[in-house]
Design brief:
The protein is an alpha+beta fold. It has helices at about 5-15, 35-55, 70-75, 80-85, 160, 165-170, 215-235, 290-295, 335-345, 385-395, 410-420, 430-435, 455-465; strands spanning about 20, 35, 60-65, 85-90, 95-100, 130, 135, 150, 180-185, 200-210, 240-245, 260-265, 280-285, 315-320, 325, 330-335, 350, 360, 375, 400-405, 425-430, 435-440, 450. It contains 13 helices and 23 strands. The structure holds glycyl-adenosine-5'-phosphate.
Length: about 475
């Protein structure tokens, strides 16, 4: 089962402490969200899964953590200063502001049954380009618009990788093909953010730039498309809710040869099946655009350097062929927040108990579950039971994230753990004091098994694997 819509997840996320509206006590800040105790654990587990899969399990990818604020020239030569913009239109009638290419996705604030521009009262201006980069100033400045101090919050993590290409290559002594992976925040002053954590102005990306010979790029791109479908499967995203989308020549970024997006069914409630899907990630062949753009060497037809400011040439020397060239780049770029939303939607399920009450179960993969085991005392006023439960928590904790919880009756505690996706509850009861055994309850089946305390750690470890 999948959540029927994003709203169901918004309400669960707030009720159980995954995600809260940001700045809520001051009226919020349009489409900004804070991650609560469970949300931050879930996001960390997603990032860890991605990092382990790409950086640790493979032998050809290095990690990196570059600065959010870089020299402004990075964004000049990457092309972001001139091209990273959306076409913006204003409506003189309702004072609304919209993205020209997304008019069909939003409703007119005055007449919500129609899209902006579809009503005769709408009075849209000509489109103008709006740059999405957040501006800031670095250091003590005399005025806020001091051009010499201008800097940007990075709109993607990718450029931090390209400008460190030579550093990583030289220190890791890599040969092609190899990749550099990075996870971190990115910022875009989106014209129309929305749909919960789907499109926000501050978000997190997991990006990997894989450097290769031009002739290998098409095969490697396909391998990453297939690889990411498998990784999404491993974190519990259903294949039936994913779709591949080949960008058309008109949609391709100016630097890309081929880009395939993996779409997820974020909007299952929409009648038109096409409109149910939106982008979860993109896998682009960026050719040699970026390394060339940040290099001091390339020249135009008149022999003038294309990059006047770089101090480095980011080309690669192939020892075997004795040739120097700019590697091609395959870039799988995925959002942490969109992955988290898709994971929550596909983990969502409902089950009816013997009293006919509907219960929510979050069937998260154990690897992603914020809490793996909850130890619950059946009687919290019995010190021996409480002591045994707390002791069990201590024993399990080094191996799996375990919590102790005595904040309600056992039925309530089970329901809470089901709803936050905890795979196992361990209950300590009166008999446990006699037989040194506990009851282990499975989140998905609600089946209970009696397990000896001496075997508990191993039993849970096997089940969680
Ligand atoms: N370096 C390539 C790049 O940044 P992108 O398609 O613009 O490509 C990659 O971004 C991924 O980052 C998207 O597929 C999406 O998952 C996530 N993303 C982009 N903009 C976002 C936003 N405003 N809010 C949340 N996630 C976003």
């Amino acid at each position: 089962m999948t959540a029927p819509n994003i709203e169901t997840i918004v309400s669960l996320a707030k009720r159980r402490g995954f995600v809260f509206p940001a700045s809520e006590i001051y009226g919020g800040l349009g489409s900004s969200w804070d991650y609560g105790s469970l949300g931050v654990e879930l996001a960390n587990n997603i990032k860890q899964s991605w990092w382990r899969w790409l950086v640790h399990e493979r032998d050809d990818i290095e990690g990196l953590d570059s600065s959010i604020i870089q020299n402004r020239l990075v964004w000049k030569y990457s092309g972001h200063e001139t091209t990273f913009s959306d076409p913006l239109v204003d409506c003189r009638a309702c004072k609304g502001r919209f993205r020209l290419d997304k008019l069909q996705d939003v409703n007119c604030p005055k007449h919500p049954s129609v899209h902006p521009g579809d009503d005769k009262e709408c009075d849209l201006t000509e489109a103008r380009e709006f740059n999405l980069m957040f501006r800031t100033t670095v250091g003590a400045v005399s005025s806020e618009d001091d051009e010499s101090a201008l800097a940007y919050l990075r709109p993607e993590t990718a450029q931090g990788i390209f400008i460190n290409f030579a550093n990583v290559l030289n220190t890791s002594r890599r040969k092609l093909p190899f990749g550099i992976a990075q996870i971190g925040k990115a910022f875009r002053n989106e014209v129309t953010p929305g749909n919960f954590i789907f499109r926000t102005r501050e978000f997190e990306q997991m990006e990997m730039e894989y450097f290769c010979r031009p002739e290998d790029a098409p095969r490697i791109q396909q391998e990453f498309i297939d690889g990411f479908l498998d990784w999404f499967d491993s974190v519990g995203i259903l294949r039936e809710n994913l779709k591949l989308y080949e960008q058309t020549p008109e949609e391709l970024a100016h630097y890309a040869e081929r880009t395939v997006d993996i779409l997820y069914r974020f909007f299952p409630e929409r009648e038109d099946e096409e409109k149910q899907f939106d982008e979860l990630m993109g896998i682009a062949n960026r050719k040699d655009f970026d390394l060339k753009a940040h290099s001091k060497k390339p020249e135009d037809a008149e022999g003038k350097r294309l990059n006047q400011d770089s101090t480095e040439d980011l080309s690669y020397f192939d020892e075997q062929t004795k040739q120097r060239f700019y590697p091609y780049v395959i870039e799988p770029a995925v959002g942490v927040n969109r992955t988290l939303l898709a994971v929550l939607m596909d983990a969502y399920s409902e089950k009816t108990n013997e009293k006919g009450e509907t219960r929510v179960i979050l069937k998260l993969k154990p690897e992603l579950a914020p809490i793996k085991v909850a130890v619950l005392p059946l009687a919290k006023n019995k010190p021996e039971i409480v002591a045994m439960a707390k002791n069990l928590k201590k024993q399990l904790l080094p191996v799996m994230r375990t919590v102790y919880d005595d904040t309600g009756g056992i039925g309530k505690l089970y329901a809470r753990q089901d709803e936050i996706g905890t795979p196992f509850c361990v209950t300590v009861d009166h008999e446990s004091l006699e037989d040194n055994a506990v009851t282990v309850r499975d989140r998905d089946t609600w089946e209970q098994e009696r397990i000896k305390v001496s075997e508990l750690k191993e039993y849970l470890r096997k089940r969680l694997d």
